Amino acid sequence: MSKSFVEHSPDRVENANQMICSYIDNIKSTADLYVKLTENGRSNVSGLGNRFYAKGVEEFFLEKRVPIPPELYQEMDHMRSHLTMGLFPEVKRAYVTIDCDVYLWSYEADADLAIFDGVPNTIMKLCLAQPRTGVFQPHITHVLVVATVSDIMLFGITNGAEEGLSLIPDPLFKVGLEGQMVKTMVSTKSGRIFFTAKEVLYEFEYQEKGWLGRSCKKVDKSSTLFGSITSYIKPVADGMEEVVVDCTRNIVYALTTKSSIHVFDLGVNGDECVKRVTLSVNQIMHDATSMTQGQHEASFFSTIVALSPIPCTQSYPVYLVATTSKGVRLYFTCLPKQSLSQHTYLDGSSASNSMWMEEYRPQCLQLIHVRLSPGICPSSLYSQAPQGVYTAHVDSTLSVMSTAGERDTVFALSNMYHPLEDVETMNELNIDGHVWAMSCERGSKLEMAKYSNGLSPLSPHPFFSQHYTKDEHILIFTTNALYVYVHRSPLDTLRCVLAEKGRGEGEAVMELCKSLGSVNSLVMMISILASDASSDISLKDKAARLLFGLKDESEMIDSHTMRIVSPGEKNLSEWQNSMRLPTHKWCGQGDMGRKNGIDGIKRTGEGPLQWKPSARHDALYSYFARLVFPLWNSPMAVFSPTGQMIPSLPAHQLEWIGVEVIKLGRAMDEYNLVPKMINPKMTEDDTSLHARFQSEAASRERQSLFGLRLLISQTAETLFLWTTAVTHGIHEVTLNMGEDARRDIANTRLAQLATNPVLSSIVIKSLIEFFLNDDAGTKELSERLRRQCPNLYSKEDALVTSALELLERGIACPSTGSSHRIIVEAVRLLKESVSKLPLIQVADKLIKLRAFEAVVDICLLRAARDDPKQLAINVYRNGPKMDNESMEVVRKRGAAYDIITKMMDDLRCPSSTVTPNQRVRTERGGGTVESAAMFQDVEIDEIMNAVLKSEDELAHVGLFRWLMMRGEKEKILKSKSVYLEQWLSIEISKGGGVKYLDVMWRYYEKNGLKGKAAKLLNRLTDCELTEISLSDRLSYLSHAIICAQSTSDTESRTLIQELRDKLDVAQIQMAIKETMENRGQNEVVISRELNGRLLPLQDLCLKYAVPFRMPKIQLEIFKCANYYDEEKIHNVWRQLLDREFEVSCDSGGSLILGTISDLQCKFGESNYFPTELIVMHVVERCFEYGIDSTFFVSLTSKMNLPLATLLNLLSEHYRKGDPFWRENGSARDYMVQLACTVVEDFINNGRKFTDPQRIALKSKCEVALSRFAVDLRSLSSHATSSVLARLERDLAILANIN
């Protein structure tokens, strides 16, 4: 391919593909005989008038005449009873039977006459059949069926490469005829043999029964019980004269003596035989007369002389052609009218190729078209029409009829040179003698595989497939010789007229081109230019002059008026002048595929412009479409019933198409068929407008041809790739794929493969894997792919293949040293070709070799190569973008990083791909690691270090995410990555969650950024997220205070008091939470409110402390809020003490003492601890609950309450306080005893005081007790006397204390 085609544009290739598909659709539109013959079901009759027949170039040429061997004439002179003659085209043999002898000779090689005289009775008919599967030995290639006057015998035929054709003398099977006479015989492709005797169709059934031997019999396939009875009552003398088989539909047709037709259905699989319908000659004559509107006598249709099945590859609705003695062709279908109407293709396209055999079983037999022979019309071009026809062969494009007269004449009618019209030409073939047999052979260079119950796809008209079909030969066997006529293709005819010397060469070329049209003519010229045949070299100059001589340029046309707005005439006169030929008016037929193209620009006041390509453009596209037609929209492979993957075409045929495509590309380069861009000078006059349109049209044509040239190169490489895969066995090559993947690749069309290199890369990958462990095979494969598929398999691909082979060798190599050297070399090759790596496959192999750092290096290098513009970094930092390019590189880089993280996951899981058993011991720095778990940790650390050493920011990010998912925050902090802070910031900005904030402040703290850490911790405590528990917030505040105290930053230090205040609030909130949990309150409320954000003190008080009666916490809230209200504080204390006494009165007051002690520690130095209130309220509750007065001795100790203060409080409260204590005897006595108990504790422990303290306390005790004594002495009750006695005793003791 030239350098100008190095650039690649997927859009251009796809546009070219779409155009190729449209050209192929156009080819398909002419493929079905029914469409053209009946004009889409609108016409029942054709052949009347000159528009159906034309004079043209001579199409048929006698290739050779093979005379009957002279010795055979001598044997004919001695014939006693019977002689037959015929052809076996399958083995290239002609035969003659004389009495009981068979004579065979090759009409291709003119081989010696072979004689077989092993038949004991007179031979009536011969038939060549395929051997049935499982019956004969493999060396038997054919079966010769011999029908004599008494029996039918089967003889085996071998056809070796050296010994040629030979007949096994002993019959393999034999069945008696019981006096019946065989009229005709025929066989199917599966080996079934049918023959007729009188009006009955029989089958010769034979089979192998193993050790039981062989068996055979004749089975009546046409008679029913009712038919058998009526035949005895009224015998029917209408024997079957001819039997033919439609092997594409599995149908047998039988023609009777009276020209009736029987239809036998062999079933979908060809293993049945059921008589479906009989169409009488009277009905045929009636239908034909009705179709021709009675303009022709019934005798034109009364005598049918030959039946010709139309295979489904030529038409789906048309099943059969019957030729009459007048040369009239009657076309039949076996579909009912309602089904037939579904095949009226309104768009001219053929039926779908996915037709199933079940839908097309014969249900009836009806006449759908009558084709009258030339010469019937008085104004016919041909004065002599076929009359007295006695044998014929008819298909979709060729009809050969043998007629009797003064001398036998053969007429050949052909549609080859009129592919788009229902027009035929007629040629007379000169022969000598009576015609015994005729056969037409049309071979193809391409044979598509088929394994399904679907009908075979329609084949294109032979004109469009002449590039890959062989010349058609007509074999005519007469009593004197065998004539081989060749039906010359239009391309060969063009070669001949170009090669002619003399004055008339121009007229011949023009006549041919006139009949074919400009595009079809140019296609053939391009074919000659692309040919490398020696016979075409001398023709290329003339073909090139013709190709460029046609003054037909691309144009811009008005889609409304179809007016050409760019100048460019395409008259034949200029073409002829360029060839120095006489002038002829161009009146060729319309060209297929010349359609309006791409929508163009608009002009004010006129319709939109459309691009109309040139004929040369259409010819290039048409030629390519015809070359790739068999595969372009067909699956590349099919599956046999046993599940074997079979290529649609064998390797040599795929290669042939590829070579032809390459030739076309070379011709386009050599002859500059992709025009150069010309920018005409623009002016302001009217011409400039034409110049603009002309430039636009030329530009579009160039772009279109440019896309075609690219498509040609890609198609050729794809075909060569598949050739390689098929050569080595496509089934075996694709076994490494999954079953679904294999079926997907098999169902892929060539169009998909050629336009999507990714699909071809799957095949390349399978080929490489198929050859791994085979050094020689891998090298040969790599060289072949580099040579034939340089774009699909580049130099980098070859390096990858070599590297994979080295890795396979390393895996199999037991030596550690050798393995290391192999890995180093393989990694070097992989780095050179990193863009083409099958990354996952390469990583798997390196992991098996435990070359983890190499995996990291290759993955990071691949990520960088996939994103040269660093688009993924931009997306990561600035947020996602919607453009496809950015998203694609993000995906690609992510895939590379995923391999690294998956590798670490596998190392964490012993059951995964990487197992410690593969290599438990390894030398590292002189030491040996024995533990598999430790070894895996070491390897994971190596992988992480390899990533962290790189400058790939996204690789660091991928590693951080992997570690974060596994909760390994400490490893993230230890990474010392320069990208860590930015990653954390980005994740936090995206709402990544608390875990990223948690790592962030630790990162700040670890790196000495105490101020940032404190601020971030403060931010964390304010987050309204349930993820952060209250205990976490307490911890954050504590750490924040420590960090703030450790920094000299003024802003951070001013934060300390705020943090402490928040800490106090958090502690109060925690106290409420714990209290509520201990009480069994609703945990939902706790988790949502208290365990979330920090609440204001007011909310804590009003929502929790007050409603849930938490007086202690209320006091803490008052103090924390610096709120003082004496009445409220006193009420809280009363509530607190009352609750404590209610709960713990049974404990003797010990629990109350603990509570008061704790509260004294918290509030003792503040106004929030009202001592007088507390003491007197305790006195009241102790009296109420009957707690012994000794309790107050402990109380003074817990409250750090001086003895004098307590006595003073008791005395003052007694004298000036609540009168209850003076008026209630019990209360008075309790108060006095309380005072005595306190004084007695002083008396007993007075030594612990200093002398001055003791004297002072003694005085205060005496004063306090004296005040109580005065009141008691005035009372006379018994209870009071005992209390007074204790009081006076204590006073006496006090008096003695010094």
Compose a concise summary of this entry:
The protein has about 1300 residues and is of the alpha+beta class. The chain is about 50% helix and about 15% strand.
Overview of this protein structure:
One of its GO terms (biological process) is embryo development ending in birth or egg hatching. With 1298 residues, the protein is α+β, with helices and mostly antiparallel strands. 48% of the residues lie in helices and 16% in strands. The chain has 49 helices and 37 strands. A five-stranded mixed β-sheet has the order 1-23-22-21-20. Helix 13 (540-549) runs antiparallel to helix 14 and helix 37 (1055-1079) runs parallel beside helix 39. The N and C termini lie far apart (130 Å). The model is unreliable at 1-8, 225-234, 344-354, 562-606, 680-686 and 911-930 (pLDDT under 50).
Q: Whole-Å distance between the termini?
A: 130 Å
Summed over residues and divided by their number, the pLDDT gives a mean of 81
- Main sheet characteristics: 5 strands, mixed
Helix residue percentage: 40-55%
Key features of this structure:
1298 residues, alpha+beta, structural constituent of nuclear pore, transport, five-stranded antiparallel β-sheet, five-stranded mixed β-sheet
